[in-house]
Amino acid sequence: MTALPGLKLGPVGLRFRLRPLVVPLIALAVTVFVVALNIRLGDFPMSVGDVLRVLVGGADAAEQYIVFDLRLPRTLTGLLIGAAFGVSGAITQAISRNPLASPDVLGVTPGASAGAVGVIVLASTYGGAASIAAAIGLPVAALIGGLLSAALVYLLAWRRGVDGYRLVLVGIGVQAFMLNLTYWLLTIGDISQAGQALVWITGSLNGRSWGDLIPVAVALALFLPLSLVGAHALGALQFDDDTVRNLGTRVELSRFALILIAVILAAIATAAAGPVFFVALATPQIAQRLAGTARPPLVASAIIGALLVSVSDLVARTAFGIELPVGVVTAVLGAPYLMFLIIRKRREVRA
């Protein structure tokens, strides 16, 4: 695609490419269309005019309840967690220089699952822990579990610095440990607790409220701009450490700060809706291929992540007659894509 004319301000020169600019705009337009469908469709279908009338305060109490209390917070929560997973996955893959890396590998989602299932089981199985678990709450427990697990991965991977390859290997080990911890917690709970926990660890947007939406919105408002500021360092980290130092970038500080942003975004998104698998894995690679860039673009990854979760939630709510957890749909869509990435990576290694 043709490059746009460059811009030069003193010693700073910038060149613009049309494709990386057009792709996010098209994805944003499609996302707005899907969001409108998500708000319109359901057990009580509404026209676009009805929705607009509700948004300006001109509808009756029942329509306002459907839009403001049921559909709008759920739709916006899905939108924002998709964006958070997209940015987190883009940073993780760029730092590790591995398209198969994701926040799952950093231990965020399995750690969050272990924390949430621990609260569900301990809150009613063990009386002494019930008050503590109830005071912590499910989202906070998931957030703490995700952050502690990611911190464990980072510390175990540290050998006078953190290498991307070692980070992935340690992350796979910690991920396996956290998954087995989650399964063990499920075995010591009763059937009702296990059922509640299984719904959460599948990833669901059902019943999400403004209270679930606000923490994700605040996290994105704070950390998306910071990640864009760190995009220069992210580009430098594509090279070996000696080259990065020669470019004037502080390797470990930049790597730690960017990983911290990725972990916080993924942990808060997971705390809001559970581990919605494959979004953080697939979104950055889709954005990179569509935009034709050397590494996953942050803004395009955020928008396509929001689009992927919104489409999956729409399918989960309306396509099967019964409502499915959104994580089931993203897993069905993401599993073939993961196989494609593995086969493609294998061919690259052989070549």
Automatic annotation (TrEMBL):
The chain crosses the membrane at residues 20-39, 76-96, 108-129, 136-158, 164-186, 213-236, 256-282, 324-343. It comes from the Bacteria. Its main location: membrane. The keyword Transmembrane applies. Signal peptide: none annotated. Belongs to the binding-protein-dependent transport system permease family. FecCD subfamily. This is FecCD family ABC transporter permease. It comes from Kutzneria chonburiensis. The lineage of its organism: Bacteria, Bacillati, Actinomycetota, Actinomycetes, Pseudonocardiales.
